[in-house]
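Researcher: Let's walk through a ligand-bound prediction step by step. First, I give you the protein sequence. Second, the SMILES string for pyridoxal-5'-phosphate. Third, you return the three-dimensional complex as structure tokens. Ready?
Model: Ready.
Researcher: Here are steps one and two:
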Amino acid sequence: MSIAQSSFVSHLEGAIDGSHLEPNVVQTLHEGRPIWVRYDLEAVGRAMDRSDLIGRPSSLWRYKELLPVFDDSKIVSFGEGMSPLLASPRLGASLGLNDLWVKDESQLPTGSFKSRGMAMAVTMANHFGISSVALPTAGNAGGAAAAYAARAGMSCYVFMPEDTPIINQYEAIAYGAKAYRVNGLINDCGRIVNEGKQIMGWFDLSTLKEPYRIEGKKTMGLELAEQFNWELPDAIFYPTGGGTGLIGMWKAFQELAALGWLENDKMPRMFSVQSLGCAPIVEAFNNKEKHATPCVNAHSIASGIRVPAAVGDFMILDAVRQSGGSAIGVEEERIGEWLRLGMSREGISICPETGACIGAVEKCLEDGIISASDRVVIFNTGAAQKYSEALECEIPSVDKDNPIDWATI
Ligand SMILES: Cc1ncc(COP(=O)(O)O)c(C=O)c1O
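Model: Step three, the predicted complex:
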């Protein structure tokens, strides 16, 4: 069997103009914009039904027919995926929601949802015989890329803003990457990777600059559908930086609808959440624009959503608009407060990016954009313990050598 025949990938497609591209060769961008992976969904439907998933491994590879898996022996994996979907009644009650859920990606390898995209991108790089990868990162992607590259025996080069959370900096190095701090933002790091790839022979793993990270992120949507017995929720709140998570999930829902695996026609409203410290997508959504204007002076403690310009901006905006959702900006100063609310109410390890989502839910309820009875899912994209800077607080001391004043405890 030829490589192309061994998967259900039919072709690749330029997202900006729909042109068909060769599926079985190394691809990066088309006309400077991202590339979709397309499948022969009729053939998938003939080959399997959703009930065939029962009993498969509890990882994202259970959806193999809907992934670019050309050769099992090239898969690079830690068993990622099938993250818990946690009912969150206490946080829901605090916000005024009766049916709130958190999809907890903090429990994935390297502590964030980035492992999904990297599992797929590094698997495909491995399939194509690539031995050296590089990427700019706001934080979690660097650690994930370094870990998957180590597992595949590849070298990995990571460029990150110098104020990237310190754990992200250390983890990339501990996983064996050559990591560098850059005195700029993620876009500046991207420029360095772009320049270096000609000179150093790296393959560029940047968000949406290769076709496969989206496919990995897509599995969040496939899992959500399966975990809710193939009935999608009313609203999804997703922290948006480069946008692969949101775009990937929306793609998953379209593919499931085409396969006829969903119980009904209901599609969730997609809410793209950003901090007002860096909200280019929110601005473009509000101004009804196709593309976003790059954000100047971007700042946020939620480093993963501090992305001043996204190459797939139009894909994020399309998904949000098609779904009847919205793009919501929240106050940067309150992200820590919302993070603590989520952690203390539910015991889930909430990252600052998801803190912003909790704020967005609060705002949408206040503004009547969602209602108390809606089934709402917040994505917790990463683990709090990777953000020591955001967790920092005053901790009172107890003196072991003196009587304790129990009234103050
Ligand atoms: C914890 C976390 N949440 C959200 C995002 C944004 O993800 P996306 O690129 O899918 O918009 C990132 C990206 O770095 C992240 O690390």
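Researcher: And what stands out?
Model: The two ends are 70 Å apart (CA to CA). The chain has a mean pLDDT of 96.
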